[in-house]
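Sanity check. The docking grid for flavin mononucleotide depends on where the pocket ends up, so I'm generating a full predicted complex first rather than guessing from homology. Inputs follow.
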Amino acid sequence: MVTVRISDDALAIACGADEVANAFAQAGATVERVSSWGMQWLEPLVEIDGKGFGPATPDDVAAILDGSSPLGIGAIAEHPFIAGQQRLTFARAGKTRPTDLADYEATGGWKGLARAREIGAEATVEEVVASGLRGRGGAGFPTGIKWRTVAAAAADQKYIVCNADEGDSATFADRMLMEGDPYCLIEGMAIAGLATGATRGYIYVRSEYPHAIAKLEEAIRRSAHLVAPFVLEVRVGAGAYVCGEETSLLNSLEGKRGEVRAKPPIPALVGLFGKPTIVNNVLSLAAVPYILAEGAKAYADYGMGRSRGTMPIQLAGNIKHGGLYETAFGISLGQLVNEIGGGTASGKPIKAVQVGGPLGAYLHPDQFDIPFDYEAYAAVDALIGHGGITVFDEDADMAGMARFAMEFCAAESCGKCTPCRIGSVRGKELIDRIMARVPRERDALEGLPQMHNAVKTPRSLEDEIVLLEDLCETMKFGSLCALGGFTPYPVLSALKHWPEDFGARRAVPEAAE
Amino acid sequence: MRDAKANRLDEIIASHSRREGPLLPILHDVQAEFGCIDEAAKRQIAQALNLSRAEVHGVVSFYHDFTAEPKARPVLKLCRAEACKARGVEALVDGAMAAAGDRVKIETIYCLGLCSAGPSAMIGNAVHARLDAPKLDKLIREIA
Ligand SMILES: Cc1cc2nc3c(=O)[nH]c(=O)nc-3n(C[C@H](O)[C@H](O)[C@H](O)COP(=O)(O)O)c2cc1C
Ligand code: SF4
Ligand code: FES
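Predicted complex below; grid placement will be based on this.
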């Protein structure tokens, strides 16, 4: 009987993959649950002899089996969305059963760890340095340098902590990797342990990812003998976005409130329980087996400038072809959203694109030629962050999105510093007033004699906007971590590119109008 | 006299005794088993871990997943983060609230990692994507 491959990734399941798999089993097919190819608009995607059918429902099963289904997309591996990628970290996506050790080994698994054992700790660290790999969690700090610091620190206990808190909207690459190729992450962490002399590892996964947690726990159990003496444990977050910040995460692991710690000391020297600790994102650690197995140069040959290697980019929001697109740095934003993503799902023109999650700037279609590169984004007050891209069509209200940025910051602030804890609440109120389009009268407090510096006249819209810009400055420079410090990016970029949504006139009238 | 709950709490605490930093795993288990972490549980955990009651309370109140009182109604968590907003979740909110009435609680959540296929929601550990008004309505009505 025919073998049918269907993903057991959470997104596929959320779109009905389990029901489709059951229907195939009932029709007598052998069903294999594999990882997802990442063509999410086609999920549940059914694969038979390399050919794809999707998005499938239980009603399509008979037609798919008798060859009459109109859902066919031809050979999956040759689909332009897949063929155009450079998959190094996601090389196994769609191809293996996630927790099957034999599948992992047969596709080059454990080769990186074997090589690390062969060349030793010091050479392993230098290999990661030479690869140019930078932290994929957002900050882009060179991974090898972090490892060097931990390796050089003397301590009776060191830790490897994997940051799998993935809280940014529009990001799901960590989730897909953990669900689809958990051994790859385990191998990366074991290599990090070997390189730095750390014998214990923790994977801190957000509680919103129950499928990833289950897969990891199973994979850790099955592979314990292969990574020993390195010991791994999954820890589950408790619904706090800020716990993705590395020092907050460490506090959470220690069983404390997830408040951010001031740096220095850096976690590499004083980390978990005060011991030298590597905190790396899932994708940073999962890039390491390839680097060790194929050599630093093979990885560094991809990319541009100081952004080496590949980035698993996540196409999300109002996009026709959403999913996981791993490619070398340097690709333009326009290419990503228009050519690869196929524009909006609604068919309406694109209005804005947010890159880098809730702390990332909104980019205007005028900026679509910007290359995917840490420095290029930083130069225009934007960030690539964890590589999430959210597309908005012309119906988006950018003042509303700016307001949401403040609201999100207020909801998720750890409360340690004032610009973030209070500024975000005031920012939300301020944008509410701007959106309501009513000039604000002096309130009772401002009328008091002590408040002689307060303005005497009602505040105009322009005054309120200046106040908002002021507040953003304060948050940017006065916050301890990037939650308060980067929330101004989405706010100010929305204000800059779509002032009309805030009721203001465009500073420069557009030539065509 | 110790009741059955206190004994069960002791068991949960003991099952994590070999962990470093056992507080969050303990709280997760207690929340899952009793539906909340109440005053008595806080005190008992604090005593067992040699913490103050205030420290445990501080941790419980910090995290969205932990609650001091049991949830009276079944919960549907609806994602209202950016990518789901871009896919129209806001237009579903009023209808969802109406369908939920007093029977179901609609909680806002920020991102389930299903961001190309929103609007998305979570009930318990089950995830749902590509929601529109009728599908969401059906989920809410069928939630137990
Ligand atoms: C508010 C906030 C949330 C963050 N969330 C995450 C996250 O979910 N995952 C992650 O890997 N890094 C996150 N980071 C970045 C981490 O602090 C840290 O830079 C990263 O885990 C280091 O790993 P890397 O060098 O491999 O990127 C966040 C930072 C801030 C300020
Ligand atoms: S900026 Fe916000 S989240 Fe970061 S430390 Fe300050 S209060 Fe906490
Ligand atoms: S933004 Fe809703 S699932 Fe990610």
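Relevant for the grid: DSSP finds 22 helices and 16 strands in chain A.
Also worth noting: Chain A touches chain B through 62 residues (CB under 8 Å).
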